[in-house]
Amino acid sequence: MFLSLKLLFASDPNFGKFDGTGVVVDLNSSERIIFGKHADERLNPCSTFKILNSMIALDSDAVRDENEILKWDGVVRTYPVWNRDHSMRTAIGVSSVWFYQELARRVGEKNMGEMVYRAGYGNMDTSQTLTNFWLGGGSLKISPNEQADFLERLVRNQLPFSLRSMTIAKDIMTLEKKEDYTMAGKTGSCGGIGWFVGFVEEGSNTRVFAFEIRGDGASGAEAKKIALHYLKGED
Predict the structure, then answer these.
(1) In this structure, which topology does domain 19-232 adopt according to CATH?
(2) What is the pTM of this model?
């Protein structure tokens, strides 16, 4: 049983040792709550870009659907869970970089740039190499406020993508789903920062959120812990 979101949102998030920022938008009332001082500072989206990359790949026919398997290229990478074949559904869950880099190659530089621009995603700059522009040191940057705005448009199906692609993106980023409750989110880690962005639906109440942390040990996993503790009282 989940506690009332209204009650849980009464206290501030605990960023601990990190320099943290949080943006939470209530889609029913349009109320925007901001914590921290970097809500409008643009940073690399890291793997949170996989949300947009998924929709671009689907609408570009880079993959048939979220279950199409791409063969692992055999290059051994840092995380063992990356070193195997993946579909979009499995790759987003473990944040497999090589899989989404391959999707970007299939989309192509011109098409990728045009679709990121159409989506109005952050500074819309995809110029710094096709397979790395969203990672640490890349050209694409987005602020926590812009992340929340992007997610609001996704939840409302107001992005310039097919309804099918938006529905699939929301489905594959869903972390927990029970009767009258859905928690969806995506982590991101790069360049000394950590992200956790997504949305929470409880009954008729929907909120989108974007949490970003920086400092020693900052990562998407740490940002997720902080966000979940705030959003649903989870340690």
Answers:
(1) Beta-lactamase (3.40.710)
(2) 0.93
